[in-house]
Amino acid sequence: QDLSQKIKQEMLHRGIHVMVAHLACTQDFSLVTPIGTVSADPGEDIILPVHLSPETSAVFMKIRWVKGAEFIYQYMNGQEKTNSDYENQANLSIQELERGNLSLTLRNVQQTDSGDYTCKVFQEGCLCVCGCYI
């Protein structure tokens, strides 16, 4: 077991939400998530914060959010697609994409919403991945 897995397990044990960024190839930006706790009581809304650094428009990028292997939300070429199970629950702010804000809002969260969420950004054959746990 590598060090990052040990740290992740320890943080999960302590109830801390883990956010990790990986860059699959060289780009002029990276995905950034704040380190710290993100939590909500059942019925509340929660924001999974992700943004591009430096501030870069994401309007022409393909953005996909998944929970484990389950598709949640996608933005591509001005079109939004949402998993029917998350139709009125998951979205990101299209206006904020211009500023590189890729944060996903989940409305009315329940215990069943806990899990690993991953934001994937595709641009020019490159893939950037950033994940978090709620």
TrEMBL record:
Coiled coil: none annotated. Its main location: membrane. InterPro entries: Ig-like_dom, Ig-like_dom_sf, Ig-like_fold, Ig_V-set, IgSF_BTN/MOG. GO terms for biological process: regulation of cytokine production; regulation of leukocyte cell-cell adhesion; regulation of T cell activation; T cell receptor signaling pathway. Gene3D superfamilies: Immunoglobulins. It is found in: Membrane. GO terms for cellular component: external side of plasma membrane. Keywords: Disulfide bond, Glycoprotein, Immunoglobulin domain, Membrane, Signal. The keyword Lyase does not apply. Residues 27-121 form the Ig-like domain. One of its GO terms (molecular function) is signaling receptor binding. This is Ig-like domain-containing protein. It comes from Cyprinus carpio (Common carp).
